[in-house]
Amino acid sequence: MKSHDLIIVGAGLSGMRAALEGAKAGLDVAVVSKVHPLRSHSCAAQGGINAAINPNDKWEVHAYDTVKGSDFIGDEDAIDLMCREAPGIIHEMDRMGTPFSRNDDGVIAQRPFGGASFDRTCYAADRTGQVLLHTLWERLVHSGIHVYEECHVFRLVLASDGHVAGLVVYDIKTGEIFGLRGKGILLATGGYGRVFLSSTNATTNTGDGMAYAMRAGAPLADLEFVQFHPTGLRTSGILITEGARGEGGYLINAEGERFMGRYAPKKWELASRDVVSRAEQTEILEGRGTNGAIFLDLRHLGRDKIIDKLPQIRHLALDLEGVDPIDAPIPVRPTVHYSMGGIRTDKFGETPVPGLFAAGEAACVSVHGANRLGGNSLLDTIVFGKITGEHACKYVKSAQLRDFPTNAIAEEKDRIQELKSRPNRGLRPAMLHHQMAEAMNTYCGVYREPVGMTTLAEKFPGWRLDYERIHLDDKSTVFNVDLLRAVELRNLLDLGESIVKGALAREESRGAHFRIDFPNRDDVNWRKHTLAFWDEGAQAVRLDQEAVRTVGNPEYAPMVRTY
Amino acid sequence: MTSQTYTFRIQRNMPGQVGTVQSHWQEYKVEAEPNTTILTLLETIKGGQDGTLTFRQSCRSAICGSCAINIGGRTRLACKTHVGAVAKDGVVEISPQKNQPVLRDLAIDIRPFFSRVHGIKPYLQDGPERAGKVTSTAYDQVNHVTQCIMCGCCYSECTMAEVNPKFIGPAALAKAFRFVSDPREGLKTERLQDLASPNGIWSCTRCTLCVDVCPKEVAPMEAIVKLRTRGLNKGINTSAGAKHALAFHTDIKQTGQLNEFTLMMRTLGIVGSLMETGMAIHLAKKGKIPSPFPHSVTGVDELRRMYESLERSPIDVETKAKEAVPE
Amino acid sequence: MTLEYAYYPGCAAKQIQREADWAARAVCQELGIGLLAMPRASCCGAVSLRETKPAFALAVAARILSEAEAMGKDLVTICNTCLQTLTHANYRLSNEPELLEKINAVLAESGVRPYGGTIKVRHLLWVVTDLVDSRTLKAKITHPLKGLRVAAFLGCHSIRPEEIFNHASNTNEGPHLERLIQLMGGVAVDYVGKDRCCGFHVMLSDKHEVHTMAAKNCLSAKDAGAQVMITPCTLCDMIMGSVQPIAEKTVQRTINLPEMNFAQLLGLTMGISKERLGISRLHIDPVPVLSSIGLA
To answer: Which residues in chain A have their CB less than 8 angstroms from residue B177's CB?
Structure first.
């Protein structure tokens, strides 16, 4: 069986940045990714990456904005660390080759973004994530690090002492199931948008790493905090960047009214994402929407500005909604976008499971708390990719390879064989997925109420039984996507259950989590993280709580959050 | 918009014995509005009719590059192609990308494509040509090509790749231009020398297909043209392609006309010309060997003056990427 | 309406591919299209000049366009590469005012009339199919093709890039060349290679690849039942005809697909003599096929 010092799962921004630390440390690092690194969903981030690089800005202000944006539940040690590291990260990416947009004087350009008190968002045209991803991939190629491309992880394997031992891996291209031993495992597998029906996420975003970590005994934190992006396209949920509003776009309702002034009189369309999403949902619920959508109006920007500054947006609207924003407003609605929660780690990305680390959207460090600010997710991925990578490298230098329980591979092979041998009747994975995702959208969306959520939570045992009866059309070995989707579906079920149970338990409204029956924030009882564990005996998710990590900075004391 | 029934005629490919693929065509019917994307409908078919149908996809918004397949005779991203735009009499024909080995159904083996990209050293290198300062216009050229998402549409359509699998290909060459045009790159000349080797920049046929099929407006051939210009400016001119290109401006400057006789001689040398391809013999048979002494056009002195004027005070006429502001 | 153009045949038609020029002139005479000589016009430079001296290339193109402008006529050509080169330059000069100004300064300094950006660049094929009245054209086609199966080899540089050609050749009725085949009474054969590359521009650097390319395209036409191939481009003509006998050895198959310029076949359907159209200069003798429908 092959072994490596450190195995990184996921080849998006976090995973690749972490891998570079391994190369720097002279370790044997390998990356396992179910897609080619350039297909990772980091590429879809359009807007930008925050950093206090302007001499008139301060990282402390960035940190304060982030604490406030998180609705005072982000972990302050991690937020301080991220914001302090941010300028260095930008300059490092610049040196590596990212073509950041420049001001006339050649300095890296910055733009305003929602929830930020300074024009702090660095960018590369309207494809920041893509160029950052390509830059890190370039460095990855340069480093010669081995990537197990189009290889899906089936299971995280622990040794008898509870330390990570390695992974059971499935080569999508050949159908081979094999073990990989590692002294340390770093999960950088991204988010879980596909738990919901309407999502800006890629179809590959199935939160695999989160589910595997939980099944291996590492808790997930704050899964109830699901960010709804205010401007997903009505039909597909595809993202229209916040930049469209940054450039001066309006949100209007079916009556043509620019309504944000009623909800955020100071910042209007550039209020924090949770605030804007709820405002939109209110308009829709109160009958001032059209077919479940309100509108992003760019017409007043004029043809030239739209063509010059928002070309990608215009193409998306034309291609996917058949609307030219020059002539007509774009139908948009709040759409699942980002997971603030994830695998619980300390500020160095370490989980409670020895040898297991997590970074990026898969992790809950937690720098985003209950609501992430635009421009902070790309930052999170690279900063904590680097820090966690560095930390994991230090760890594996003094760690030993553990014995790999070989029955783990046999069990996975049996599981797949059993799945393939089921008769062709009953539910197909796509149907079960649709049922769950639709229910999640309906009962665990922008507004949440207890009856719906209870109904939803009670469905999971039934869906798990259904899952045991799904069948595959495709029994073949090469590129069996049908099989892959079925394996991912179990992960989605684990995460969906964690989300709804967390949301039902949290009897307050904070950040992206809004309870109709508890419309206010409750700092006395709920300024704490929700932890979710997998209960093997009950075959269900079990919850616990943990305190927020504070640093004693009086400025970070909770206050009413207005924009 | 009204929905209608479309027939998807899809090439199914199953791996057989080592290195072989069994192919057949299979038809599916789907109900859709004309502006529904092909990817949505492939998902509909896979989810509701046939779970064995295999294709790659991920982001659904034309930025990850996964879903490039041959739709209606052209390689396109399934996620941004509307069914109504490609259906002929209600039928859409779909097959995998061309010029690359097929793994299964519509999924190709992407490794040969990426090995070519790896071959151009796709990373910034330190070296003597690295500029110290980056200006606001430093990426006017870089930004053209950093829009590339490595989807492979251009490689699938490339007319040279079709007959010469060793050709580096449009995507990798565009990527190479990304570094050559970056002020921070330290080894530009070395790169240009490498790229002028056989199967490199001079093997592009200029067929312009890559420009038209690119879903991200990268215009790979434009990047190849610019690589050639930069190579020639550095005096990298020993390849047949480079000599051929150089002959043009010499002729135009001197007579205003292309001298096809001397063009051959200059490109290949006298021996090379005589040996050339057997074509010369065929041309000679038909009395088609061009005169070595074509007449000059009227006003050839004007051309010389234009040439000299531009040598004295050069004009930068390279197209520049428009700065799209983000977010 | 009289159709009169500044005629820019291109270097190939002046030297190796003279028969295309003869045929173009003969057909235009029949159709009453005036082709006015451009004595000052130089070689367009093709993509090669854009590569070696990009600014000079634009200036050379501007000088050619300016000559047509001074004549008060749009420019017409029978070479796809000239078409693409001049259209590309014209597109940029018409859409980038600053660029036009700079190039005009060079022209003025060199004693050349500045270009005003008012000229359209057309292919003779487009003029024949789009601008000549279809009844006039049909009346002139006295020797129709009687269902002859013709492969239209479109040629890269009159169809790509779409960005510069989408106005000039915008039509929903299929490629001009295929429409012309139908107008002549033939059947346009659909085949894989029709919009691919002849390989002309790498014929000296990658000759084996060019042979394979030409062979593949011809064979794909032949396998689709084509009896003859026509192109709108003197450079495609040069390759698709002369390379066939050599390529046959490379691919170990007989090709033997007669290939000619579109104007030559059009001329034959108008009853113009083979001699005037330079049919004997073709590499693959079309007479056996043509005589089967009484055309030769």
So the answer is: none
